[in-house]
């Protein structure tokens, strides 16, 4: 690795993280106004529109030569796109069939499940990161979980949502590393299949959850304006999701997701005057401590790994001659710790 490459890589990661946080918080605010204030509750169908607009935007960017398309095995792209689409559907169904508290617990469970799967199948070692993840999850749980009403159907849907989300996010990282494709190239090729599965299933899912027909809804000009705004913001959300997972890891993406949760809670209290208690404040503070520990441990591991890379440069050069065949976990483990 050249001396000038490290700052550039770090700047790229910071930019990806910032774009992900800014776009995600923005779309939450926009969708809250659309669904709560304007009475448009069709989340799954809206997500399919998000993905369609994302694909169209990337197609225009491709025509303008902003990036180069790189063919990927069609079977891989189709299965990957369908899996991500299904995971979004299961997450929405989980929210519909469970209490808010149990849904938040479902989202929290994605991190330990991802750690478990990567430890078993990718042989990753998280070491001291487990402590920071525990502190983070504890804080987010205290801040966001209010009730835990269980039911059989909701529990099954939550389990399926966790599994499909974990596998989808791990594959997002693995495909980019193993096939040497960028986040833009992978998103461009998989977005149509994600959009298709949600476009077909979305109206049915939304009908089950809301007892309303998305096609029979009365679309005012204000509703259409917010839908368009939501779709435009979603382009940056989807792009930054693939970018963050590709540059870091699925676990780091999930940690970032809980930072977004804390920011949304804080925004709701300061600007929208949502109910806020000492428990919420304590939970957010604990979560921030967990994120700080996670960042600290990741930075230390990165420095150790960079030192090891310099001392074993001949071996690294030899491995890099077959980038599609090696397990990139050893090189990535130090600098990286995972879509509605």
UniProtKB/TrEMBL annotation:
Pfam families: TPT (PF03151)
GO cellular component labels: membrane
Domain of life where this protein originates: Eukaryota
Membrane-protein topology: Multi-pass membrane protein
Keyword Flavoprotein among UniProt keywords: no
Keywords tagged on the record: Membrane, Transmembrane, Transmembrane helix
Domain Sugar phosphate transporter: 23-295
Subcellular localization: Membrane
Stretches that traverse the bilayer: 40-64, 76-95, 101-122, 129-146, 152-174, 225-246, 278-297
Name under which the protein is recorded: Nucleotide/sugar transporter family protein
Native organism: Abeliophyllum distichum
Taxonomy of the source species: Eukaryota, Viridiplantae, Streptophyta, Embryophyta, Tracheophyta
